[in-house]
Design goal:
mainly beta, RNA Polymerase Alpha Subunit, Chain A, domain 2, 7-stranded mixed sheet, 36 strands, flat
């Protein structure tokens, strides 16, 4: 189209059409500007959305566990809107209304609460749901004993209260249940065990069956634990002879095991007191723990499942305390400092084994005064006590020591030169009077101050201005 034709076309346009085109052009420009400032973005939402089941028919239950299923969304929205989105801004639902027992592929419906957000994809789009009628039946409770009682004891048939429980759920799962189990731990018990235990439904392969309800969910289990005839449990007593070394003490005697089970006739076991002894263990002069395996001394016609026991006799040095006097040692002071400590000696209370305290040397306990970083002046310094291994510091008397720090560097003063008088010629008295008069004269319109006469300095020789008189 030629230029003159374009001009004629423009002149021929109506004013209304021109206005509409201007508005349209302005809207396009505004839309482009907004899109550049807050562009539309397509991206995957970084948080999964929980899928909710709704409108399940009465008397039905899903075989699958759908309570924790989630959906991943791909969204299209302005950048600012995407940055502000939360999980609560979406709802994901599968609607089971009007569905009877059977297997279905149900669509997942996702709704965005913000109208500026578009859900363009989701995963999964469908969920497989198998609905079955809910049935129930009664199953007896079985008890599984997971461990054993103490040696020499037996457990008898467990008792359960209630004896049976009701299980309910989807028909397929309920029919798989073969038993309801309660597990019990005896943990070396020597008497009856009573516990309230949770119940677990299991199938023929002894695997747990989920998605079924057990009512009640717990049972009170009683397991009798008895000692069979011909057995008797007694305490083991170690026969310890002698005394540890002087300055040492006995801390205890440990026997492992502490009890043993004796075997024999009821008459023979009845004559056995409540303990049996070991062979003697001599600890005379011991300075450390003594540990030995000792055989048991058993009565006649009585045997034991345990032929020997391990005996440990604890021996430790006597504990005591001691007060020592030490000279504090200064650390961290510079060579240009004079240090004055208010106390020459401090007392240190230490504790530990008595044999070690008796051998404590003077250099093994030191008292340090750390002056690192302290400026000249008076300071209260807490002493640090260094003790050897095995010795414990209980306290220092006093808890703080006054230390005076003085600098040895003397500041250099700047000397001020004194004025030096130049030798002068003696001034005659009259000239002195005239000069003084000129200096003291102050012209004034009111009054004139007359200078006071200045005495002439003493002359050791005649003034050069005076002419001696001569006589004819």
């Amino acid at each position: 189209m030629r230029i003159d034709e374009i001009r004629r076309y423009g002149r021929s346009m109506k004013p209304t059409t021109t206005l509409l085109l201007s508005v349209l052009l302005a809207f396009v420009v505004w839309f482009i500007a907004i899109d550049q400032e807050n562009p539309m973005i397509r991206q995957e939402f970084d948080q999964p959305i929980l899928i909710e089941l709704r409108n399940m028919g009465p008397g039905l239950q899903s075989v699958q566990d759908l309570t924790n299923r989630t959906a991943v969304l791909t969204l299209r929205a302005p950048q600012r809107t995407l940055d502000a989105l939360q999980v609560d801004d979406f709802s994901a639902v599968i609607d089971l209304a009007n569905l009877s027992a059977g297997s279905y592929e149900v669509e997942v419906e996702v709704t965005a609460l913000n109208p500026d957000v578009e859900v363009i994809a989701l995963e999964p789009r469908q969920l497989r749901v198998q609905l079955e009628p809910v049935i129930s039946r009664f199953v007896p409770v079985e008890v599984e004993v997971m461990d054993s009682p103490a040696i020499g004891y037996d457990w008898q048939e467990p008792l359960s209260e209630p004896l049976e429980v009701e299980i309910s759920g989807p028909r397929t799962l309920v029919t798989q249940v073969r038993s309801v189990i309660a597990t019990v731990f005896l943990r070396n018990a020597k008497s009856q065990v009573e516990q309230v235990r949770p119940l677990i439904a299991r199938n023929a392969q002894n695997l747990e069956v989920g998605r079924v309800n057990i009512e009640p969910g717990t049972a009170r289990i009683v397991v009798p634990v008895v000692q069979p005839p011909g057995r008797k449990e007694v305490v083991v007593r170690a026969d310890v002879k002698g005394l540890p070394s002087p300055n040492y003490r006995l801390t205890g005697v440990n026997v492992e095991p502490q009890t043993v089970v004796l075997l024999g006739s009821p008459g023979a076991l009845q004559e056995v007191p409540g303990f049996v002894e070991t062979t003697p263990l001599d600890i005379e002069g011991a300075t450390d723990d003594v540990r030995e395996s000792l055989p048991l001394i058993l009565p006649e016609n009585v045997s034991s499942l345990q032929v020997s026991v391990q005996v440990t006799v604890g021996v430790a040095p006597l504990e005591s305390s001691l007060t020592v006097t030490r000279h504090p040692v200064v650390q961290g002071a510079g060579d240009d400092m004079r240090i004055t400590v208010s106390l020459e000696e401090v007392e240190v209370i230490v504790s530990g084994p008595l044999p070690r305290l008796e051998l404590l040397g003077p250099e093994e306990v030191r008292v340090l005064l750390d002056l690192t970083g302290l400026l000249p002046g008076s300071h209260l310094v807490e002493p640090t006590v260094v003790v050897p291994e095995g010795i414990v510091e209980e306290g220092v008397i006093p808890e703080a020591i006054e230390v005076l720090i003085e600098s040895l560097i003397t500041p250099t003063a700047t000397a001020t030169p004194e004025p030096v008088e130049a030798p002068g010629t003696p001034v005659p008295a009259e000239s002195t009077i005239e000069a003084a008069a000129e200096l003291t004269e102050t012209p004034s319109a009111v009054e004139t101050v007359q200078p006071s006469p200045v005495p002439a300095p003493e002359q050791t020789e005649p003034s050069p201005t005076e002419t001696p008189e001569t006589s004819n």
